[in-house]
Amino acid sequence: METSYETIIIGGGVVGSSIAYHLSERKKEGILVLDQKFPLSGTSGSTQAWVWVHNKTPSWYAEFNMYSAELYPYLSKKIGDVEYKRTGGLSPFFNEADREKALLLAEAYKKIGIKIKVLSREEALEKEPSLNPEVAGATYSSIDGNVNPFRLVDMYMRAAKKNGVQYSTYNKVTEIQKLPGKFIVSSRKGTFVCNNLILAGGTWSRELGKLVDISIPVNQLRGQILVTEPLKPFLHYTISGLRQAFNGEVLIGYSMEEEGFNRATTLDVIQETANMAVHYVPQLKKAKVVRAFSGIRAMPEDGFPILGNIPGIENLYVAATHSGVTLSPLIGTLMTELILDGETSIPIDRYSISRFDLAIR
Amino acid sequence: MDKTMIICRCEEISYEEIEEVISNGAKRFDDIKRMTRCGMGPCQSKICNSLVATIIHEKTGIPIHEIPLPRMRMPISPIKLETLATNSTSFSSVKSVLDEVELEDGKVR
């Protein structure tokens, strides 16, 4: 393997691989992706992979997610079938207080072009007859959907490799040295030199930041998910909490726990998740659970993406975010624009790392 | 082994498909699992475990005893959701999306 690259991306998950692919679309030579394990072994491979827009707040963040969701059909055409399905998204609610909230949400989002309908009980049941008849209503938006995360990352990787991107896996970065005009990246399998360096380590961003003496405030959040045996297709929409995959499995889960990197599954949360499933869709009672898994999600301290260059260190970039599956097509596009053109087609100033305290030393 | 031989019966994954992801850098059962769904079916790799280890060994030279076992997940054998459910409707770590919508002065932030 060569040792000199134009751009090195640390992290081969959904965000890192999307940047690698989008960059390679325009500039084919000199891109290396380093991954400490193998892509999909972390967050990207342990998610329900909703492409979700419609009840993220504030509205400017929902808008950012919407632009990314809109890119999905084109992405599928470019890199191949990633089992993306724009099903529309339903968030059922069971009490009237949530209807008030839902109406406020719909009103606020009308201004930015995200159409949210607040459905009555009857309308919700008409759309999704399997919902619990006790449902009070639901919010609905047509832009939401889901994707197969394994296919997505695999196809990003394949398309990137086809464009000349090199991947070096099981290769943890141990040291980063900043010299004038270049970075020297030491890893388990050797030392590489590059002009541009992109930190896309997701949950591991804090650790990566320390290697360049900056603080990237990304925390970990554990989510536990149940998977059923394949059932005949019966869920029409992506429901906030569960969705049915192409192969018929239903994935259930919407838990959040601060447990660091502990990826265990625990019976209490599994039971709550099972409760949620039968509360939302009672007929799932008889469905068999094939397995439970958990994933560690990246969660920036204030919840919003950390994107762009790092002030004070030329050619050093960061891309760390929650909702990486939803945002990956847009983040890949914008980071490519930033690196090659120096500006982005959609402003990302508000996602700059400069909103946090940068110094750790 | 024959290229078309089915290694994972639950998900119908052939020798050839596993060989291909190993050539793309996969080294462990779990890498292969995520890339192909081999071992992700109802048996949770009880049948294909040793077959896949043999293929990894053949293709990469890694000694069999150094190849990590696939991550087994609860429940080890499929059980009905209602067996796990306790019918409680109060949740602590499980949320709904609307819980996350933040209001400020009676308006969506």
Tell me what you see in this structure:
The complex is a heterodimer of chains A (361) and B (109). Chain A is α/β, with parallel strands linked by helices and 361 residues long. Helices cover 30% and strands 27% of the residues of chain A. Chain A has eight helices and 18 strands. Helices cover 34% and strands 10% of the residues of chain B. Chain B is built from five helices and five strands, in the order ββαααβααββ. In chain B, strands 1-2 form a two-stranded antiparallel sheet. Chain B has a two-stranded antiparallel ribbon with strand order 4-5. In chain B, helix 1 (15-23) packs across helix 2 (29-36) and helix 1 crosses helix 3 (49-60). The termini of chain B are far apart. Chains A and B meet through strand 4, helix 3, helix 5, helix 7 and strand 16 of A and helix 2, strand 3, helix 4, helix 5 and strand 5 of B.
Could you give the topology of this structure?
The complex is a heterodimer of chains A (361) and B (109).
Chain A: E1 4-10, H1 14-26, E2 31-34, E3 50-51, H2 59-79, E4 89-93, H3 96-110, E5 117-120, H4 121-127, E6 137-141, E7 145-146, H5 149-162, E8 166-168, E9 173-179, E10 182-187, E11 190-199, H6 205-211, E12 218-228, E13 238-239, E14 242-244, E15 250-252, H7 267-280, E16 288-300, E17 306-309, E18 316-320, H8 324-341
Parallel strand pairs in A: 1-2, 1-11, 2-8, 4-13, 11-18
Antiparallel strand pairs in A: 3-7, 4-6, 5-6, 9-10, 10-11, 12-15, 12-16, 14-15, 17-18
Chain B: E1 6-8, E2 13-14, H1 15-23, H2 29-36, H3 49-60, E3 79-80, H4 81-84, H5 97-100, E4 103-104, E5 107-108
Antiparallel strand pairs in B: 1-2, 4-5
